[in-house]
Structure formats: C-alpha cells, structure tokens
Amino acid sequence: MLRYNFKYEWLLLIRNRWIQLLSILLFLLFGFAVYNGIQKVEARQTNINTALSEFSEEETETISVLDSIDKGYKVNKSRWLIPSRPIVIGNLLPRVVNMPAKPTAFIATGQSDLFAHYVKPMVTGDDLSMSYTEMTSPVQLLFGSFDLAFVIIYLLPLLIIAFSFNVLASERESGTLKLLASQPIRIRIWVLQKLGLRFFWLILCITITLVIVFAIFSFDFVANWTSLVVLLSYIIVYALFWFVLAFATNIWIHSSAKNAVALIGFWVFFVLLSPSILNQLSNSLYPMPSRTIMLNQMRTLKAEAAKKQDEILDSYLRDHPEYAMNDSTQAPSFYHKYMATQNLVKEELRPVVEKFEIQIKNQQQWAHTFSWLSPALTAQNGLNTLAGTSEKDYQAFRNQSLTFAQEWRNFFLPFLFKNKEFKKSDYKNLPSFEYVYQDESNLLRVLGLLSMSCIIMLLVFVLKPSKESINIVA
What residues are paired with 274 via a beta bridge? Predict the structure, then answer.
C-alpha cells in the first residue's frame, strides 16, 4: 500500500504543479533571504574594516613619530599630541575591539541590528558609558529582517499548512473516503503515509534549493559543512513539528475550512503570541531598574569626587604603592587625579550596575528556560546561535571588551604614575584583542523540537477520535 501511496502522491503533486510551484517559491524566498543577509553582513564587516584601516594608518604614523623621537629628532606636533606621552597612545590610538561575523552570520540577523560590532576603549574612557548600541530604524525593529531565519520560522509553516491542511478532508468532501476505508489499511496510517511523503518531498526540495542558493553565493561547503548540517537539522525538526500538527488536525477535524482555520490559529499562537507572552512575562517578573537613575547616580558621584580629587588620589596611592611617583617634588597632573577618581566612581557604582545586569541575565535565563513552549522561539534561538548573533554572543562580546578595556587601562597606569615616557620598544608590548565565540550545543534544542512532535503523535494514536469521525478514522 505504501508503494501505491508513494506513486499516487508523486503523480498528484506533479499534476497539481505543487512540486514545481514549491521549488520556484523556495528558490525565490531562500535566494532573496540569503542575499539580504549577506548584504547586512558585508555592511557590518565594512564598518569594522574601515575602523581597522583608519587605525592602521594612525598606527604607522605614530610608530614613525616614536622612531624619530627615539633617535633624538624634533617632531612637528603639539606637545599635547606627542606619542611619547603614554596618555596620548592610550586615548588617541586605541585598539579596535571588534566582533567579526561568523561565516554563517547571514542566516539570522538576530541581535546584530541592535548592537555595535566594535568599540575603542581608551585609558580615560568610562566603562559605563562605552557604547554597545547603535541607532536603528524603528520600522525595521518592528517588522524584523527578511533573512533565512525569517523564511524558516515564519513562512515555512505557512507553506506546510497550504501543503497539508486538507489531505483527509478533501477525500471526505469528494466522497472517496468510503472507498479508501474499504482498503486493508487504517485511515490514520494512510494519512500518516501521505503526509510523510509530502514531508519527504518538501525536505528534498529545501535541501536542493539551499545547496543551489548557497553555491550561487559562494558558500564554503568544505569549511562549514557542520553548520550546514545543523541548519538542515533545525529545518527538518521544525518542519516535522508542523507536519505532525497538520496530521493531528486532519485526524481530529473533518472540514477543510476548519482545518485551515485551526492550523492558522496554531501558527498565530506558536509563532506570534508565544514569544510575545514570554517576553512580557519576563519583563513583569524581572523588571529592569531605571537606567536614568543609574546615570544620575553616576553624574552625582563624579561631581562629588571632582571636589575632593586630592584626597582621593592620596588614598588611591596608599592602596597602590606600586604606582608611587618617581619624582616626589612633581605635582600630580590632571590625569593622575582623574584616574584615581574614575576608579572610585566605578567601585561606588558597582552595586547599581550589577543589579541592572543581574535583571537582564534573569530575563534572558527565564526566556530561554521556557522557550520550549514555543517551537518558533526554540528554532529562532538555535538559528541565532548558529549565526553568532544571539544575545549571549553580544553579552560575551561586551564582557570580553570590558575585560580588555581594563587590561588596556592597567597597561598605561605605571607609565602615567611613574611619569615614564612611552618608547617605540614599548609598542610591541601593547595588549591585543581577539574575540572568541562561545560554543553552545544545538543538540538539546533539536531534541526539544523533536520531542514536541513525538508527544503530539503519541496523543493522536492514543486518544480516541470524536464520535463524528470514529466510523471512518478508527
């Protein structure tokens, strides 16, 4: 019977032009989504490369000036811009701390349209005011980006619904269901076979289309084959969930119109409402402290600290005797007082900042814990992780850049407090930065999506159908 089902379904899909239409539609959707994603990644990388290019030019000029100073030549620069002053190097030649895009970044825009991808920490910079965000279009934030993840999460279920909503109902409405019921096969098994074959053809079309589209855009299959396998795994288990939902709907509801309405209702709930509800609940359970109050506290502390900089500097030097000045007769400069004051302000504001960050972490943890309630959210989080654009990736970038900012500052403190000149030989010892992506397993998310499908399938076979359809579905 399966062999006849396979042949019949193939002929039916070909004659109805479902396969042809589906292939063309998938090619257009995937092609435009990948193109759009690649354009965003290239714009992101262009911004980073521009900053790196500017830094490279400034670096070459600075090294040349340092070399002239070491040789005793006079340089045509203001005394405030001479690079032998360590504060000039620390402030005017900061490293470009950047977050390069993954080869798979085009798959999901994720958080990349909310956060900046490079910062330039300075010696006198303020960690609390370091910019990690950038202005974006509110319209784009409302509707999102048309990327591959959008096609998979939002549009693929609609294609599956159109592909499978009336598999059984159409037979009932055309009057052929009684003839099928006379065959030596249970109707449930027959519907399962038909949907299984459609699932097979859909996945085959998706796989071929993705390979063609990726090849057109010069995707490196050899170097990134594991990422392609993970992507296909997400697509398969996510599509399977919607086919299983369509199977349950076909069994339990006996009208094509009702099937369509029910499946669209499921789409609205799982894709649109569930993520919104989880987000609102996380905001209610873990409300964010006022950022305005935090900034006001920071300004107040800075103003108070500025009035007693001399006392703060004395206290700072007592706590850090290694920074004691070589020349005790030389009066402390503005930067000596500023660095000591900044350190005090940072310590005083630490509890406020930690409370702010703890609430963000609690919100994210709560949302991730209950994301399994929404298959769409589970798949979206997985695709964001695969693309390196998840909130965890940007939080990791923030943490790593803050650590480097402190390392950069600490490197120059001995030069500053001991009034040492910065030489060309010191340049090679400057701290460097390289962002490291955090590894995160995708297996649990894939298994979570698969388990949802198994639970629904089990319910369909265990629970009895309604009396209205028991005579033809049992």
Answer: none
Contacts of 98 (CB under 8 A, 6+ apart): 48, 51, 52, 117, 118, 433, 435
- Reading the block at residue 80, the tokens are 């405030």
Distance CA 63, CA 75 (A): 12
Per-residue pLDDT reduced to its tens digit, 332-342: 666 666 776 77
pTM (two decimals): 0.83
| Phi, psi of 97, deg, nearest 5 | -80, 105
Rg from Cα positions in the chain: 31
| pLDDT tens track for 2-26 | 666 677 777 777 777 778 888 899 9
First-last CA distance in the chain: 18
416-450 per-position pLDDT tens digit: 777 788 888 888 899 999 999 887 778 888 998 89
Residue at 41: amino acid letter: V
Paired tokens of 251: 């069994």
Ramachandran class of 108: left when φ > 0, alpha when ψ lies in -120 to 50, beta otherwise: beta
Dihedral over alpha carbons 158, 380, 151, 458 (to 10 degrees): -30
Among 245, 277, 239, 241, CA closest to 262: 245
Q: How far apart are CA 306 and CA 313, in angstroms?
A: 11
Burial of 19: CB neighbours in 10 Å, binned 0-12, 13-18, 19+: middle
Mean pLDDT lowest for which of 10-19, 202-211, 237-246, 328-337? 328-337
Q: For 71-186, where are the alpha helices, taking DSSP H only?
A: 86-92, 138-143, 148-150, 156-164, 169-174, 177-181
